Amino acid sequence: MRLVWVLDTNDLGAAADFWCAVLGFVREEGDHPVYLALRDPAGRWPDLLLQEVPEPRAGKNRMHLDMVVHDLEAEIARVRALGARVVRPAFEEDGHRLAVLGDPEGNEFCLVERLGGTLGP
């Protein structure tokens, strides 16, 4: 079995630009017009498969990405410069500082900093 994340989008190119910049992934061009795979060049993480859909995102995500980082404020600034918006500013919960952000289409994701300073789970 192999895990692949799938994210619906209205604009494959713009979504690929954003998520490649955020995650450090690269595009894997294929011949299917409604899918675009993004891959971790180091092979550590599952692929992110973008699927173009006609309808806009509606409601809250049922699944989202959490990205554990060393410096929450710096990472918030970095992804905002790439086009993300802050949905919920930084707050503390269960020994973590986290913030909820949205990609340019509104798909939510979290940036998480462990208060102990490690990147573990």
Task: Write down the secondary-structure element order.
Answer: EHEEEEHEEE
Q: Tell me the number of helical segments per DSSP (H or I, 4 or more residues long).
A: 2
Strand order of the largest sheet: 1-4-3-2
Q: End-to-end distance, in Å?
A: 22 Å
Shape field:
globular
Number of strands: 8
The percent range for helix content is 10-25%
What's the main sheet like? 4 strands, mixed
Assembly classification: single chain
* Radius of gyration (Å): 15 Å
**Which stretches are low in confidence, meaning pLDDT under 50 for 5 or more residues running?**
none
Helix/strand structural class: alpha/beta
The percent range for strand residues is 35-45%
Mean pLDDT: 93
Task: Characterize the structure shown.
- The protein is α/β, with parallel strands linked by helices.
- The mean pLDDT is 93.
- The chain starts with a strand and ends in a 7-residue tail after the last strand.
- It contains two helices and eight strands.
Descriptors:
single chain; about 120 residues; alpha/beta; four-stranded mixed β-sheet
Topology overview:
Blueprint lengths: L3 E6 L2 H12 L2 E3 L6 E5 L7 E6 L12 E4 L3 H10 L3 E9 L2 E7 L5 E7 L7
Summarize the structure.
The protein has two helices and eight strands.
